[in-house]
């Protein structure tokens, strides 16, 4: 038995809709994947997809509340389709990409927008804007064997009952198959990996006391509140 310096952390898990747990390995996020969101962030061109990452322990499940994070005065919501990888692969062809998907969920890519703005202006990494504690609330994972592979359907986010974000999965610039194929050219995807696939327009700030409710048609819901 290994003599650990300290007790290893338990794996981060997400409930699966029909029973069981999905153990999270890595979280990859697609940047700028909806045209209107690109425009609202001051960009207007179709570029190859790019990715940033969040740590597995950024995941929050079960509708648990999240704390307003330190070092920001501009804390934003971003509703996203989350892809759960269930089969290992590298350099995956587009036409074979969906065979690597276990299921899907609704998730939130919470963002310290002011820190991100400084990083973008300075050409620095985004980690402290994106990869902080409690930055990835995620709903229950629905197996693709049950719901298929949704490529259309409303994706919405409400704050205190008022709709802030509203789009459709069909508006993604890079669909799930293309994102998987492109990402797998850089890293080997393995079971337990998650891909957050970008957000539609309407991102905005939240404050303590706000209740966030996201929904993706045919996939599920995600809920959290800010404390």
- Overall pLDDT: 94
**Which secondary-structure class do the elements indicate?**
alpha+beta
Parts with pLDDT < 50 across at least 5 consecutive residues = none
Strand line-up of the largest beta sheet: 4-3-14-7-8-11
Count of helical segments? Answer: 5
- The shape is globular
Q: Whole-Å distance between the termini?
A: 41 Å
Supply Rg: 17 Å
Largest sheet: 6 strands, mixed
Share of helix, binned = 10-25%
The helix/strand series, from N terminus to C terminus, equals EEEHEEEEEEHHEEHEEHEEEE
Number of strands: 17
Portion in strands: 25-35%
Question: Can you describe this structure?
Answer:
It contains five helices and 17 strands. With 227 residues, it is α+β, with helices and mostly antiparallel strands. It has a six-stranded mixed sheet. Strands 13-12-16-17 form a four-stranded antiparallel sheet, with no helix packed on it. It is globular, with a radius of gyration of 17 Å. The mean pLDDT is 94.
Task: Jot down its keywords.
single chain, 6-stranded mixed sheet
Give a summary of the structure in a few sentences:
Helix content is 14%, strand content 32%.
């Amino acid at each position: 038995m290994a003599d650990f310096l300290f007790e290893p952390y338990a794996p981060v898990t997400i409930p699966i809709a029909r029973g069981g747990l999905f153990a999270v390995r890595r979280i990859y996020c697609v940047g700028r994947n909806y045209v209107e969101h690109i425009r609202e962030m001051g960009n207007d061109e179709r570029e190859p997809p790019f990715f940033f990452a969040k740590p597995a322990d950024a995941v929050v499940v079960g509708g648990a509340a999240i704390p307003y994070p330190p070092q920001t005065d501009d804390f934003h919501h971003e509703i996203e389709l989350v892809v759960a990888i269930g089969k290992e692969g590298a350099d995956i062809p587009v036409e074979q990409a969906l065979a690597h998907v276990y299921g899907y969920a609704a998730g939130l890519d919470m963002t310290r927008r002011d820190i991100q703005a400084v990083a973008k202006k300075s050409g620095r990494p985004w980690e402290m804007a994106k990869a902080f504690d409690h930055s990835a609330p995620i709903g229950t994972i629905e197996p693709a064997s049950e719901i298929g592979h949704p490529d259309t359907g409303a994706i919405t986010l409400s704050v205190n009952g008022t709709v802030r974000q509203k789009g459709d999965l069909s508006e993604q610039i890079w669909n799930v198959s293309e994102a998987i194929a492109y990402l797998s050219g850089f890293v080997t995807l393995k079971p337990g990996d998650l891909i957050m696939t970008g957000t539609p327009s309407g991102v905005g700030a939240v404050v303590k006391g706000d209740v966030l409710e996201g929904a993706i048609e045919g996939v599920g819901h995600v809920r959290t509140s800010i404390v």
